[in-house]
Structure prediction request, 205 residues.
Amino acid sequence: MNKQATAVRPPSARNILDVFEALFRAAAHPGIKDVQPYGPGVGGFEGVKVRFEWGNGDYLWAYLFADGDDRKPAPKPFAADVPYAPDPDSESGRKWLVVDYVLKLVHDLCVTARPDAFTGCVPVALHNVVREHGPSGLRVATTDGAARILRVTIGSGNTKDPEEDPWVGYEIPEEGVRAWKEHRQVTPKEPETQSSVTAATASGS
Prediction:
């Protein structure tokens, strides 16, 4: 049998990211000021850039996961107090983690919307990204039997991230998010530069 003819074609990273770009727009989140696609560019990165009200850019990006990899990411649930983590140096004894907040938001948007092309969105621990307090990525499975890994990284910014959740009480608008297809846009992708890739990958987030 010709294996090449029967092999499952992996989903396009851009197609998956387009869904999440629309979900971010449908979220009606008070802190999100801009959502734009970016890439592909240096290193083949493709992603969605989400700019929050304090000016920093967070990047959601996808890469192909090979099921035959011995380092297959294991499921790792979100901590009950996500997006906070213990911080003995803080007066409150905890710190607010932007990356964890965005990753949880991405997961909850996907679970709420249930896009037809997706069969699962599971938080996982990636072998090359250690996060003690919670998952480091999401494994998005698609109807063709393939999967992609999503990660969130912090881009460069001129302002300090909040120490506490600025949007306590925000709830995902279920009806609006389930109508996420209405928020799809055909927009020029932001060119990826070496500095943006360095900022994203050097954060280790």
Observations:
- Residues 1-8, 187-205 have pLDDT under 50 and may be disordered.
- The longest strand covers residues 57-64.
